[in-house]
Amino acid sequence: MQPLSPAELNPAFSLPDLASLNDVTPLPFSALQARADSAFATLAGLNAANPVLLLNGFPGVDYEELVQDLVQKHANHADLFDLCYAENLHHPQKPIWLRLKAGTGIEFCELVGQLLELSSRHLEAEHIVQRILKKQGNDEKIADYLSLLSQHVAAGGGFSHPILINLMVHRHDSTIPIVYARQFSAEQLFGAIHFQTEQGSVFSHHHLLEPGLIHQANGGYLIVPIEELLDQPNLWFRLKNALVTRRVEWSRPAEMAAFYFQPEPPPLDIHLILVGDRMSVAELYILDRELDTLAFLRADIIPEWDAQADLPTYLGFLAHLRRKHELLDMDRGAMLRLCRYGSRLTEHQHRLSLVEAQLLALMQLADVIAKREQGELITEAQVVLAQQEQDYRLSFLVEHSDLGVRDGQILLQTRGREVGQINGLSVIQIVGHPYDFGEPVRLTATVHLGDGDIADIERKAELAGHIHAKAMMIIHGYLANLFGAEHPSPLSANLVFEQSYHEIDGDSASLAGLCALLSALAREPIYQHFAITGAVDQFGKVQPVGGVNEKIEGFFRLCRLQGLTGEQGVLIPASNRLQLNLSDEVCAAVAEGRFHIYPVAHVEEAIELLTGCPAGDVDRPETLFGRIRERLDDLNGHTMESGFLRRLFRRN
């Protein structure tokens, strides 16, 4: 079997004819989100009160920029207004709201002041009233308030505050408000009623009303992270009630709940944008089964881009990030390296990551190095150095893992041959650590007389998850189908992950476990200079697994510690080829013939490479499978019977 060539170990990108990233037209994140674009186009034309759009995203998305871009593109109008509160002249403990035309709030307050002065002097103020009403489109509520105000002043009535109007929300221009709610409390979201104490008396008035985020977004868009609502579920139901009733109830401190002061709830007219990953959306749905009814308009934010279909657009996104964060320009080599990094994040050679936070991190690190070296452009070497420096800063756990191998405390072999022993590959994920890393693991299998059962020691020790248990059952199914279809197996087996002291799960070691069992059954040793990963089905077909790059690099690290011999290599599922995106060090070793990567599609290919013995047919005793069948038949007592029948038929 031929190993993969160096060219197959990394993605290949065909860049357009350009010298630097500055030659590319910048494209914002929204330009790469056709699904979200479609949702906002629909939202802009939706005839519904307080509509809700739910965006299924992922960590690292700049939702505020995304919404701003798409609103600017699709929202052709907005019902903007200024909002103010005035004293209720009939019930001072129930201040009223007045909805003003957008941008007229300051002038309204000045004209009301003039009206107050004229009324207090018993002068004709009708022209002021008419002027105000003309400005406000003859709004009935404003007309009633001005009439009562004139009568109240003429009668010598007093006020709770010397300034009559509390202008809470004022639109300085026609810009559609887009408010991103971050880490909010009930008072910050829905507004707050403040109280004062004077000579032991507690009181409040309309000037002690503080607008919330929902008031600031009124007439526009309010972006709310679902995670914030999950931390405070009662806020979601309050927000939902506000959307349905089209008005916003005021929040008050708990200690003032019994104090009677009830401002009139203002009208609500917003577009609510809920943002969060699929797990958050699922949790909110469990919390409120009516979520699908309320948020019937939904869209996915895609985290990946198709490099084969449209690489120039992706480069435009990188150019946008560079300009947005004022970074140095990048040369052609740096662009290629950044694309390769984006491909590694997606674990696919034809896909590129759109996670801004991760891409920007590398770009900023390379920018620091370029400025440190007084360069005018970020080069490929500087991007590589940025990755190396970051790996160094985060490599303590990896070095600590290698220390056990170096000191001989973790027993792993990369030379020689052993029966029933194989090098498997695992990926270590540590909470709080940004990188996963590969770590080889030794699997051993032993066989003994029994009832044909495979004892998974990890499962018996309650150190294995459900997927791992399923994988062991699949192994049993494959062996039973291949060797025990006519007669039960007289051999049982034990399979274990040696020196593993924590729970394991997944099926990526099932191919390794199966090969170890085949080795033990056939008494055929396995080359220890190989490691293997892959899942397997009941027919022996090898299935893809995750973390293939980290696994290969983990075994390469072990081989480098123990010395590269030129024979060492890794067997991976053939279907994982497109996931390959390996480090420069591994690629160099492959190019020099010091390390090898073999794609396998069936367990027969794997066991032949691992043992150097043809797997063959169970009916041919010179093959590995034939030897296993012969051994099982011998233990079952069928060998003598079949030999007698063959002699009998030959005589006839």
List keywords for this structure.
alpha/beta; 41% helix; 27 strands; 652 residues; seven-stranded mixed beta sheet; elongated
List strands and helices in order, with pairings:
Layout: H1 34-44, E1 52-56, H2 63-74, E2 81-86, E3 96-101, H3 105-120, H4 126-135, H5 140-154, E4 165-169, E5 178-180, H6 186-190, E6 192-193, E7 196-198, E8 201-203, E9 209-210, H7 213-216, E10 221-225, H8 226-231, H9 233-245, E11 271-276, H10 278-287, H11 291-294, E12 297-300, E13 304-306, H12 311-324, E14 329-330, H13 332-346, E15 351-353, H14 356-372, E16 377-378, H15 380-393, H16 396-406, E17 417-419, E18 421-428, E19 437-449, E20 454-456, H17 457-460, H18 466-483, E21 491-497, H19 510-522, E22 525-527, E23 530-532, E24 535-536, E25 542-543, H20 548-562, E26 569-573, H21 584-591, E27 596-600, H22 603-611, H23 624-636, H24 639-651
Parallel strand pairs: 1-11, 1-12, 5-10, 10-11, 14-16, 18-23, 20-21, 23-26, 26-27
Antiparallel strand pairs: 2-3, 2-4, 6-9, 7-8, 13-15, 17-22, 18-19, 19-21, 24-25
Helix pairs in contact: 1-2, 3-4, 3-5, 13-15, 14-15, 18-19, 19-22
What's the total count of β strands? 27
Q: Taking all residues together, what is the mean pLDDT? A: 87
Q: Give the terminus-to-terminus CA distance.
A: 45 Å
How many helices?
Answer: 24
Instruction: Calculate Rg over CA atoms.
Output: 36 Å
What structural class do the secondary elements suggest? alpha/beta
